[in-house]
Amino acid sequence: MRAIRRFTVRPVLPPALAALGELAGNLRWSWHPETQDVFERVDPSLWHSTGRDPVKLLGSVGRARLDELAGDQGFLHALAAARADLQTYLTEDRWYQRRGPAGGPSSIAYFSPEFGITAVLPQYSGGLGILAGDHLKAASDLGVPIVGVGLLYKHGYFKQSLSREGWQQETYPVLDPDELPISLLREADGSRATISLAMPDGPDLVARVWVASVGRVPLLMLDTDVEENPEHYVGVTDRLYGGNSEHRLRQELLLGIGGVRALRAYSRITGHPAPEVFHTNEGHAGFLGLERIRELTVEDGGPRLDFDTALEVGRASTVFTTHTPVPAGIDRFPRTLVEQYLSDAGPVPGVPVDRILALGAEDYEGGDGSVFNMAVMGFRLAQRANGVSQLHGHVSREMFNGLWPAFDEAEVPIGSITNGVHAPTWVAREVFELAGEVGADPDDLDSFWTAADKIPGRRIWDVKRQLRERLVADARRRMQRSYEKRGHARAELGWIDSALDPDVLTIGFARRAASYKRLTLLLRDPARLKRLLTDPDRPVQLVMAGKAHPADDGGKKLIQAIVQLADDPQVRHRIAYLPNYDIAMAQPLYPGCDVWLNNPLRPYEACGTSGMKAALNGGLNLSILDGWWDEWYDGENGWAIPSADGVEDTDKRDDLEAAALYDLIENEVAPRFYDVDEEGVPTRWLEMLRHTLKSLGPKVLATRMVRDYTQQLYVPASVNARRLNDDYAGAAELAGWKRRVRGGWPGVRVEHVESSGVGDAPEVGAVMSVRAFVALGDLAPGDVAVQLVHGRTTSEDELRDTAVTELALVESYEAGRHRFDGDVTLDHSGAFGYTVRVVPRNELLVSAAELGVVALPA
Ligand SMILES: *Cc1c(COP(=O)(O)O)cnc(C)c1O
Question: Rounded to two decimals, what is the model's pTM?
C-alpha cells in the first residue's frame, strides 16, 4: 500500500537532553569523534543502523530510552562537555581573528553546484563536491567568514548497485529534508523565506532556502520543491548532473542568480554581513555575476551604474576557480538557449542580453560560435582566477590562452592554488591517537606530523593492521550485500568470510569512472595482474570502487570489466569492487590501504585529492606524475609511474604505462612491504611512511589551501573591491580608463630601441642600458608601462624564462612620443635576448594582460 501523504514527526527531546538537538544541528559532529561518541551512547545499535546519522538517530530512539538518558548523570556530563566544546569552537577567536590578515573581508560567499560534507547529506558526486565540503570545514576551523551557497537536490546523486552481469544500476532515493541536518530559513514572522526568478516561458521559479551549519559556516541550499511551483519547476532541483541542457541551465540560473538572492535574504533576516568577495567553485555558478550587475545597474534603490562600471565592481570582488583540463568537462550551453532565458523576460531584466552573450562567447581562434561557455564567462566576470595545482594552472593557461592571445602562456592571468583535504574528516581517529601518545597536540597539526619520528615502528604497524582489518570487515559486509543483490544465494557466498586478508599488501583505487582516470589500466594484462594478486610469498590485494555517470556507458563497461574479474574464483579473494563509492565508504577505505593508486592520463587530473587523504593516514602513493603528485612527489614519499606523455597512440601509451605499473608493484612496492625485521615490522616501508607524513602532512591540508585562498585571493580582492565600491567613483573611473585605453591602443607603438654597454662579447655581470622610443598617441605615459622583457633565447629567437624590467620615462617629445630608459645586468651566461613592449598600467589591474592588449616593436 502506498501512503497518500507523508510527513516526518520531529522528535521532542526531554529538556535535559536539549543539547543533543544542538549537537545534531551542527555538522561539526561529522568531523568531531568525541561528539560522535555522545551520539553512539544514546543507542549504539541505532547509531550504526542509521548509518551514524544523528538526526535519524534522534528520530528513532524511543521515549523510554530518552527518559533513561535524561536521568543518567554520566551521560549528561558527557553531553554537557560536548556542548560546551561546540560553543567554544563556534565563538572563540581562531586563525582569521588572531593571526589573519588585518582588515580582511567580513564575509565571503562560496558558490558550488555540489557540497560533500557528510554521508548523511548526499549532495555531491565526486571530487568537486568533496573539495567544496572540505573548503567550508577548513574555513570554519580557521574562522574564515565564508558562507556557502548551493542547491538541495531531492535525490542527491544516484546510488549505485550492480546487476548480476556487473552492469551499473542507478537508483534515486528521495531525501526527506525533515530527516536531513538542515533547517529552513524563515522570516521574522516564522513564515518560510523564498526567493524567485522570472522565467521567460512561464510563472516565476520559486525556491525555499535551507541552511546547514558547517561548524561556523552557514551553507544556504536552494530547493524548488514548493507548492507555488508548477510540476516542471518543482523538478529543477531534482538531481545532481541529470537532465538535458535546459534543465541544467535552469539549475545554474537558480544557483547563480537565486544564490545571490538567497544571500540577500539571509543577510536581511539574520543580520549576516553582505559578502565582499564571491568565489565560484567551477563555472556552474557563474550567473551570480549577472545578478550582481543587475543589482548595480537596474534594481530599484540600487546605485544605477552603467554596465561597464558594474562589471568592474563585480569583477574586482569575484574569484573563479577552474577545475578541469578536460575540454569535454567544460560546461557549455547552446547560445540560443542562453539568449532565450536571459532576455528581458528572464531573471535579470534590464541587463542587455547581447552583453551577456558576449561574456560567454568563444570568440577566439578555435572557438565555437554557437555555444555559451561558462568557464569563459567565469574568467570574464572574475578579476582573479586559478587552477587547482601548479601543473593544472599551467595547463589552464595554455587551454585559455585564446582569451589573451597577445600574451605568452606564462602571462595568462590564471594562477594556481593546490587543493587540500580536511584532516579531521579524513584521518582515522587511531592515527591522531598515535600522535597523541608521543605528546603531539591534535589542535596543532604541525606538531602532529613531526611526531611521526617518535612513534615506535611496532606501534605504527599494529595500528595500520587494525585499520586494514577494519577495511576488510567493511568490504566483506559490502560484498555480501552486493552479491546478494545480484541474485546470489547466501549459501554460495561463504567464500566472502575469508575474502581479502588483513595481512596482505592492500592497494586502493576509488574514483569516478571518467575515462581519463583509466579505471582499468591495471587490468591491461589480466594474466600478469593475476600473478601479482596470487603471488605465494608477496601477494597483493585490490580494493576498487567508483561510479560512472548514468549516461556514460563507456564508464559502465570499465566497471563491468573489473566486476567480472572480481567474480573470478581464482582471484575473488584478492580483488573487490565495492559498489556505491561515497563518503561513508571512503572514510575507512583510505586508512585501510597501504598504497593508493592513481593512473590518470596525464595531464587530465587537475589535482586529485584522494591520494592526499591516503597519505595523511600513512598510505604511500603510487601515481602518475599528474595533478598534486607532479608537484609534491619527492622520490621518497611514494612512487611515480612513468608516463608515456609523448606517445600519441593511446593504446600503446596504456600498454607502456601499465607495464611500468606492474614492474613497480612487483619489483619495488611488494618487496618493500614484505621486507620485515625479526619483529615483523617492515622498517624500510615505515621510513617511507614517516617521510610521507612529515613531507606531505603540512602541505595537503585544506587549512593550508584556505589560508592560501584567503591571503592570495580573498583579501586582495576585497581590498580592490572596497576601493571601487566607495561611492563607485573608483569603478566608474576604472571602466572609463579601460574604454579610453582600449580606444587609444591602436596609436601605441614601440618605434625604436637602442642599447649600449655590452659590446660584441659581453661577460656575465655586464650592464646593458636600453633606450626605447615609444608613441602613445592620445594616452599618457602614466597609462602604460614600458617594459624590457629579457631572458634566454631558443634557436628560433623565442624568449624563454623571461624577466621583466620596467623602463622609466626620461623625456617627452611632440605628438605623444616619449623616451623610456633602463638598465639590466646580464647575470647568466649563454644565449640572451630581449625586447621592449608597452602594456596598460593601472594599480587596480591584477595583471598586465588583463585588457589583452600589448604593443611590441614592429
Ligand atoms: C576524495 C573523494 C573523491 C575525489 O577523489 P579524487 O582523487 O579527486 O578522484 C571522490 N569521491 C569521494 C567519496 C572522495 O572521498
Answer: 0.97
